[in-house]
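INFO worker-7 received task bundle
INFO bundle size: 2
INFO processing item 0
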Amino acid sequence: MRTLILLAVLSLTVSPAFAQKYISWEAENFDDINGEKFQVFKTPEDVDGYTVAEASGDAFIGSTNGTGNDGGDWVKYEFSVEADDWHFWGRVIAPTVADNSCYWAIDTADGEITSTNDGPMNIWDFYEAEALRENYTTDWVWFRLNSRNGPFEGLELTQHGDDPVPLELDAGKHTLHLAHREDGTYIDQIFATTDIEFDPNETDPQTAVEPQNKLTTTWGALKSGF
């Protein structure tokens, strides 16, 4: 019997599922904000001629059409991870070619955050390629992090980042800034995983792990509880 128990424990320890790690947070749970263009909306909410009926946590961020583009306004998220290659996703509503992007930066000082596509700043596009614009929708869609000129150059032309490139993050604390670019773009959640194959459009990230405060529990933490 002891041998069988030992084999079971070893099987659990090396199981590939427990090797993957995940983090996520609600977009409205930012740690800091600059400017007034990013607003927090509670569902159901009428925006730009349609209704956002649901959102994770019953809230989301963005700006209605007419607010104006760019501006340097931003929200900041602080998070901690284990050292690894991390694939970031955002749950977004981006209904038109004029409402489908924001700026982003990783581990950048507040004073360096601008609404420009240079320096540490990148553009995160949603259905930017003309061939993909038939997919514009007022429903929530998960988009893999991309950029026009930075570490994921060219991936803005794909639907969800068909040739995924991760962020290589050291162990410890990090920051993600989202800076305003186009009004009419809305963001519900941020999700990141070390699993290159995981697609939150196919599997709800909330079913992958149980939430713990702002970040989800990692598979490693779940394993240690057995």
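INFO item 0 finished
INFO processing item 1
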Amino acid sequence: MSELHDECGVFGIFKNDESMNIVDETYLALYALQHRGQIGAGIAVNKDGNMKYFKGHGMIPEAIPESELNRLGKGKIALGHVKYSSGEAVDHENLAPLVMRYIKGQLAICMNGSITNFHELREELNQGAAIFQSNGDTEIIAYLIARARINAVSIEEAVREAVCKLKGAYAIALMSPSKLIAVRDPMGIRPLCYGKIGESYVVASESCVFDSLGGEFIRDVAPGEMIVIDEQGLHSYKVTESEKTALCLFEYVYFSRPDSVVDGVSVARARQRAGELLAQQHPVEADFVCGVPDCGIESAIGYSMASGIKYATGLIKNKYIGRAFNDRKKNNEYMMRIKLNALKHNVEGKRVIVIDDSILKGATSKHIVELLRAAGAKEVHMRIASPMFRNPCYLTSDTTPKEDLIASEKTNEEICKYIGADSLGFLSTESLPQIAKECKLNFCDACFTGNYPLDVSDTSRADKYSQKIES
């Protein structure tokens, strides 16, 4: 169970089916994306250029009560967003979608990712007397679009001009009075795809959304591509260029749902391959293999298939801890005790291999080993379905300081001793790309190697604006 915070999720729909209720479809889509963010959610609906919205803190039922859905009414276009947090409280202004009025009416926008030239762009806008209501990337992008729209002949030209100023990782969904637009960063670091529900077009962070809504996945949005959907149909434009691609490998390790397909690769299959490679690289005799729910399960199945050691349940996760409980938690140790428990009947007297997706600070892994030993495990062997996480991620997730990452300072043996396992093995850095070998893109593995695909020197915002990277 990784201590890394999830990514945000974006969704957009352009209705071509008269019987469809796009508010309900958007609401259900956010449930399918709930794993990407639990700190807040929002929906914006466009009817004839008039936009209504509602957003709030917490999981979907808390953030958007069903009583608010009727108030949003009916419309032609809708956006939805789920937000993750770096652990601190998020102001209401930083929730998405962001809805604003500008020279051409209203504009709604949401995104997943991080703009690395944030300081430069914000200073430029400040010099133009911009007044900011939030401290995040989304408002920066909205301002750039609004300013470009003054002279641009269309909203798509304004979006093109705006995104050409951006550096970083992003998947953007926005709606103008008459169009739904989606844009992916030039390296394809953030995932984005589109499909159809009946005759209506939808864009989303992950393909699992289309399955959940009974729709069909068409394809991924290409790196640097802008998709525009209007009454005439769907139009594709190449708006930004890059000499290389760098899809975040952590989408396969942790972020994405296992039933999603990201850039041509099944997430479930990628995780199973990670387990198979782990079994080859770090074999050990044991009675059974178990996975840390949820992201370690598929890798544990892969380890079991490759090693011939049976798979069984060793840990149970409490999936019903909402934001209200999070607000009342005493400390991290208390929270971990509530979230996980060992299945004593299966564990007692057994040699257990436990598979997790990653280790960041080490506290969760230590707690898991202690749980299994307290349940009577004879031996506990920890296997990690990714390499050592040594470097902060500035492009896709919470930027945990390097000094807080246990692998940045400790060896494999020292980490093993700290967490109390009988043995510990990580997937090798060289073999990690093999888990998604059919992927259409190259990868970003900076959290493991420190090789960032672009300049991240401008990503620390705490000193200047007291803010964290937003998604």
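INFO item 1 finished
INFO post-check item 1: The CA atoms of residues 15 and 76 lie 5 Å apart.
INFO post-check item 1: The chain has two domains: 9-246, 266-441.
INFO worker-7 idle
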